[in-house]
Structures are given as C-alpha cells and as structure tokens.
Amino acid sequence: MGDFDAFLLLSFGGPEAPEHVMPFLENVTRGRGVPRERLLEVAEHYAHLGGKSPLNDQNRALLDQLGPALRGAGLPLRTYFGNRNWPPLLTDTLRAMRDDGVERAIVYATSAYRSYSGCRQYIEDLERAQQQVDGAPELVKIPAFWDHPRFVAANAARLAEALRDHAARTSPQRAEQARIVFTAHSIPQAMAATCAYEADLRETAQQAIVGACPNAAWDLVYQSRSGPPSVPWLEPDILDHLRALPAHGVRDVVVVPIGFLSDHVEVIWDLDHEAAAVARDLGLGFHRGATVGTHPEMVATIVELVQECMGRKPSCCAYTPRRPGA
User: Fold this and answer.
1) pTM score of the predicted model
2) I want to staple 152 with a disulfide (CB 3.0 to 4.6 A). Which of 56, 207, 318, 320 is the partner?
3) Which one, of 240, 262, 143, 120, lies nearest residue 191 by Cα?
4) CA 105 to CA 302: how far, in whole Å?
C-alpha cells in the first residue's frame, strides 16, 4: 500500500452522560447567538433519551466493521475515532496517532453532502487540530460522496426496507401509495446559496427513488434548524410539510432521513417523537426509515472511497472521481 497508514473517522460528537449534555450544547453553539432557552429545550430531548447521544456508539460500531472490511480490501490501516465537539476530541486522537507512529491518515468525516458545516468546516477542524498537536500526521479528507453508487444503493435499500415495513403494518396498497418524505438537516439560506447542498440532496434522493420505487411521489424537506428565529433557514420544515399533506389526499408517509448517516438524537427526537406525533394528530399513517448506518453498502462505500483516494491528494471541494453511473 505505502500511501496511508491509518484511517480516521471524524464526527460531530455527542454527550455520553446526563452531566455532559449542557456543556456539550454550549460548546456546539458557542458564538452563534443561540438563546439559552433553546439549549434547555434541546437538553430536554437528551433527557428523554437517558441523557446520552447514541452517536459515539454508532460510530464505534461502524469502525468495528470498517477495520475488517479495509483489511479484506488489502488496506491494513489502523483505525481511529475523533470528534469535533466532544470526547474523543480530535486533538487527543491526533496525539494518540502521533505517538503510535502514524505519518499519513485518510479521514472520513460523517457527512456526505457539500456545505460549509458538512465539509469545509471539517477541513478547518483538521487544520486547527494539526496546528495544536506537535508532530501531528498528515491528514487527507475524503471528498463529499453524495453521488457514490454504493451510497445511493444503501439509501435505496433503507427506503425499500421502510416500504416493506410499512406494508406489513398497514397493507401493500397503502405502502405503494405512501408519500416518500426525505429529510435533511436545515442550514441557513445564506450558507445554502454558497454550496451545492440542496442539489446534492435532491440527486441522492432521486437516485434512491429510482433504485427502490421508481413511480413513488416524493418530497425533500428539512428539520432540526437552530439559531436565531430571525435568520432564514431552508424550508419547508418537516412538521409544516406533514400538516399540508392531508389536503392533497395523502393518507400515509414514509419518512427517510437521507441527509443523516446515523440515528442520532436529532433524528430520533425530531422524527420519532415530534413528526410522529404530528402525523398521529393528523390521522396520517407514519413510518420512519433507518439511516444508512452500518448497512453493508455503506461500509463498502467507505472502503471504495479510501481506494479512490490512494495515490492522490484530492481537493475536497473540487475533486470529483470518475465513477460508474448509479
């Protein structure tokens, strides 16, 4: 191999005990003008889930599968895990990598789409952490991968699973007529105007529909907005969208969080609690599909992304590998 000697999974981070929740939220929102009342509201969401985010455990589960998969593909890379906002913090992970003798690592950030917060900010995090750690290894971030055929296949598989589950709970006819509602994390409209975030999401959603249910009607909506109410974010919001659907004759919705890679607190609270409650009040049949998580096609996606970066130093915002069509 001789190109990379380690693989680093870089993620957002999340609290792992009730006493971590407020410090974590304050760390995430520092300098963004988020009212404390909003932080307390979000802290309640964590409290309902035991005061712990499932995100770190899910990332560890993904790493457990990636190590053998990478070795099986002829990539005997040591695997590491670091976070942007909560332990294991990226700087601590880089110190451990340096002490282990790592010289050059490929970095997988848990975000598939192009935006400042989903791509460029991770690059800035990596650069800042390298400056803080003497002797830190060279780090090469894998580019955004919204269009990777196996990533699309993982999303199509999750959609097909959700439709089968909904058919089992209702009827095949109702599942065939269900409205597919893809959701993604909202971002400020000013940020969206500078990147391809919306276009990427629509491309992945369209290809997933083609792979799972070509004739289904679908929408792309947003969730989990934060920040001052005066700042416009991408819409429609999932809750507003659900409220509008019965007037169009929709009886059932299958909600698929295509913009998220794992079932962390925002997915669980915003969809399984709030959106499900709104649908129930409206008399809508509601089923929420899973994120790609550790689906075999997702694991294969990451392995192929590493292989694509071998022997080159891609620019995260400009590099587009040649891939077969989805």
Assistant:
1) 0.93
2) 207
3) 120
4) 14
CATH of domain 149-288: 3.40.50.1400
Name the phi and psi angles at 274, rounded to 5. -70, -55
**Average pLDDT over all residues of the chain:** 93
Tokens of 123: 């690059």
Task: Please compute, for residue 310, the number of CA atoms within 13 A of its CA located in the half-sphere on the CB side.
Answer: 17
CB neighbour list of residue 293: distance below 8 Å, 6 or more residues apart: 58, 62, 261, 262, 263
Give the list of residues 6+ apart from residue 216 with CB closer than 8 angstroms, or none. 176, 178, 179, 180, 209
* Mean pLDDT calculated for residue range 149-161: 98
pLDDT at 122 over 90: yes
Instruction: Specify whether the CB–CB gap between 208 and 290 falls below 8 A.
Output: no
Among candidates 281, 213, 286, which has minimal Cα distance to 251? 286
Please report which confidence band the pLDDT of residue 130 belongs to, taking 50, 70 and 90 as the band edges.
very high
Domain boundaries, the chain: 6-146+295-309, 149-288
**Domain 6-146+295-309 belongs to what architecture?**
3-Layer(aba) Sandwich (3.40)
Q: What is the pLDDT of residues 200-249, one digit of tens each?
A: 999 999 999 999 999 999 999 999 987 777 889 999 999 999 999 999 99
104: tokens are: 């050059």
